[in-house]
Amino acid sequence: MLLTNHSMVEQLKLTDRKIELIKKLFDLTRADADNLLAAEPFITRNLDAIVEEFYAKQLTHLEVEIVIGDSETLSRLKNSMRGYIQEVFSGTYDQNYVTNRLRVGKVHKRIGVSPALYMSAVRLLWDILSDQFEKQYEEGHCSRDEADRRQRSLTKLLMFDVQFVFETYTGALVAEVQKAKQELEDYAHDLAETVAKQTKELRELSCQDGLTRLFNHRAFYERMRVELASCARRKEPLTLVYFDLNDFKLLNDNYGHIVGDQMLEALGSTILNSIRETDIACRYGGDEFCIIMPGATNGHAKDVCERLINGFVSRNDKHKISFSIGICQTGPDKLMSGDELVIAADKRMYLAKAQAKLEPGFWLCDTQESLGKFGMFVCGDGG
Ligand SMILES: Nc1nc2c(ncn2[C@@H]2O[C@H](COP(=O)(O)OP(=O)(O)OP(=O)(O)O)[C@@H](O)[C@H]2O)c(=O)[nH]1
């Protein structure tokens, strides 16, 4: 509901019938309206003096002075007070009258008039107007009985007014609480989203190698465990490719660690470009890398290695470096443990590396213990 599309009376569902019911609660009758209306000529004559007396007394309180704040506001308030007193003695207390009371409540709440301050002003006005009734009696404008009846009617009407003012006070407070609650809920929601996002990022970071953005050593074993279990369940093979750069130390020594780092980074992205989404690339440590290939045989793994070597060579890097590869397939019938698989692949990688020491280049040793140089795999006993 857009509040600005509805009057205050509508928002509070104050129909004529409801207003009449409230009047009944306060025993505010037609006779009371007539009593106050009868006092109207005398009150109107003294209106300015009444308003002046009211503000003179009000301004003896520092809190009131602070709330009013300046002469323009004071003069505006005096005008409003004149209008209010005239309404009090108009004898008509309909929806229009009620709307004005609600507005007063809203303004008082907005400018920060506390209920205590508001009630003290009502009491003061009641006092001043009661004196006026006494004067009317003393000056012979009305009988004792009429002055007393006017006084009682005034009390009822002021009480009637006060409850409307507080209706808007509480309404505004409830709206503020709801707004604060909504803001708090929005904040909590945003916070939960931020925490979830950051937790996800942290989790990813804790699994990642900072240089190559591949999975790190810790994540490698975790992923290996999960993939071996799922391959065992699906009765599928799993192949591990394990490789190590050849003479990487020389590159570092000759050209510095920054060049070494760039080489490792380049290798990381070449690996990612050479594998399928289901394959898992990891930096095992230093210049050693692994690719876990769920569902793949050593034949598939060789194809991937060929793509990888091609990609790596075609980078056109002035620093030439090769790597040695060990491949080990397990399953589909009985699968090795992760440790067994790493040991087996590592052993084959060292066989390839031994060969690379004799004849530099990309050497690969697969699960059949065959050794091959990139592009022309030849069988060897390997052992
Ligand atoms: N630039 C760089 N170098 C690294 C990083 N991690 C390990 N290294 C270096 O990698 C080199 C590995 O040396 P080795 O284990 O002797 O291996 P290698 O020189 O490739 O020799 P072989 O494996 O026998 O071919 C060492 O010089 C390490 O300092 C890294 O993050 N950045």
From TrEMBL:
Its EC number is 2.7.7.65. The keyword Coiled coil applies. Pfam families: GGDEF (PF00990), Protoglobin (PF11563). Residues 236-365 form the GGDEF domain. Signal peptide: none annotated. This is Diguanylate cyclase DosC. Keywords: Coiled coil. InterPro entries: Diguanylate_Cyclase (IPR050469), GGDEF_dom (IPR000160), Globin-like_sf (IPR009050), Globin-sensor_dom (IPR044398), Globin/Proto (IPR012292), Nucleotide_cyclase (IPR029787), Rev_trsase/Diguanyl_cyclase (IPR043128).
